[in-house]
Amino acid sequence: MKKKTKLIHEVRAVKSRRELANIIKAQRISERVLKDVIKKLKSGVTELAIARFVTERFRRYGASVLAFPPIVSFGKNTANTHHEPGKTKLKKGDTIMFDFGCTINHYCSDMTRTYFWGQPSRRQKKVYQSVLEAQNRAIKKISSGEKRAKVIDKTARDFLNKKFGVKRFGHGLGHGIGTVIHEWPNFKPKSEDVLPVGCVMTVEPGLYFKGWGGVRIEDMVLITQKGCKNLTNFPKDLKSATLVPR
Ligand SMILES: [Mn+2]
């Protein structure tokens, strides 16, 4: 029987060892940059100054082509998933969100981390822990061998919707990543995609409250025969997310 030819998006979703090595290298550089960025934060600094610092560090570490313009948001701006860094200054009690990535030989990385500038409030804690739990549940589901994108999306979504209502997690759970930042397959409620072994996916649940703020946590995982391997190596527990203002 003749095998059905694969379409180009299906072919490119599956990464060779070399392609994967580039994605991982891009991710390791992002982690170095994020480490520097956290040290650079101080009360009164603007989102724009930090975003410029991100770009400058990527260049220093040999990744001058970014995967997308870096997202740096403070305070209530963290509720806007597509926030453009501006003149907003960092102040005590703020939620801080970073979403950035670079490219190595055209291969992208993508990571989001959320922080608190000082001890988080009860609500900040609750939102953070819930997003983290949603991500853990989704990754666990993938680890169990699940390959249906909508089932994985549902695992995180049901958990968050039950706690916060259906309007707070307003985007897909994640996307394929490669030479472009968003590629097939997609974690979405109505997705019919089935993850091929060897594709790299982001897992990025979030909760957003207009006028208050938001939390998103994003890792990249490699889909394997039996489950997945997390390619992101950066702390995300609540303690690590709590920064001491200076
Ligand atoms: Mn992403």
From TrEMBL:
SUPFAM superfamilies assigned to the protein according to its UniProt record, in alphabetical order: Creatinase/aminopeptidase
InterPro entries assigned: Creatinase/aminopeptidase-like, Pept_M24, Peptidase_M24B
One Pfam family from the record: Peptidase_M24
Domain Peptidase M24 as annotated: residue spans: 22-225
Cited CDD domains: APP-like
Descriptive protein name: Peptidase M24 domain-containing protein
Organism: Candidatus Nomurabacteria bacterium RIFCSPHIGHO2_02_FULL_42_19
